[in-house]
Amino acid sequence: MSDLPACVEALAAVHASGAGYPTRWPADPVAWLTPADIEQGWVAVLGEQVVGQVLLRDSPAHGHNISRLFVSPAAQGAGVAAALLDTAVTWARDRDLPLMLDVTAHAGAAIRLYERTGWRRTGTTVAAWIAPDGSPVDVHRYVLHP
């Protein structure tokens, strides 16, 4: 938990970069980064700086899902997101857990990462929440097949 302030800083840098993540800045970023249904989480550190995070959540409604994957702009392009994703996937596979994730349709880099690493899109829905400008947000669901 001591890395939470640094995770919030990294998340704020991602949001400020215009990447559109998170779509809406949370009122309580610490709570947003630590939802009650966390099964496991990992933080990426380069040097002594926290540069990213990924969570594996276990939700009764959604099963085991990859969530809150982000990498600070300064560390993007260095394979950090792929390494975080691989760590979470390996942990889940070692426990025979089926995996899914949701990603907003505007998150092109994330979608390319997921598709490049074997995730398959199973559908698209409109999110229950809206973008800051009031427009609807399309969300793609992905699953990972062994």
Describe this structure in words.
With 146 residues, the chain is of the alpha+beta class. The chain has 4 helices and 6 strands. The protein has helices at residues 4-16, 29-33, 80-94, 108-116; strands spanning 38-46, 49-59, 63-71, 99-104, 119-130, 136-144. A hairpin with a 5-residue loop joins strand 5 and strand 6. The longest helix has 15 residues, at 80-94.
In short:
The chain is of the alpha+beta class and 146 residues long. The chain has four helices and six strands; from the N terminus they run ααβββαβαββ.
List keywords for this structure.
six-stranded mixed beta sheet, globular, alpha+beta, 146 residues, single chain
**β-strand number:** 6
Largest sheet: 6 strands, mixed
* Distance between the first and last residues' Cα: 32 Å
What's the mean pLDDT score?
A: 94
> Mind telling me the C-alpha Rg?
15 Å
Poorly predicted sequence stretches spanning 5 or more consecutive residues: none
- Percent helix, as a range, is 25-40%
Structural class, from helix and strand content?
A: alpha+beta
Strand order of the largest sheet: 1-2-3-4-6-5
What is the succession of H and E elements?
HHEEEHEHEE
Assembly state here?
Answer: single chain
Binned strand content: 35-45%
Taken from the alpha-carbon principal axes, the silhouette is globular
Q: Number of helix segments?
A: 4
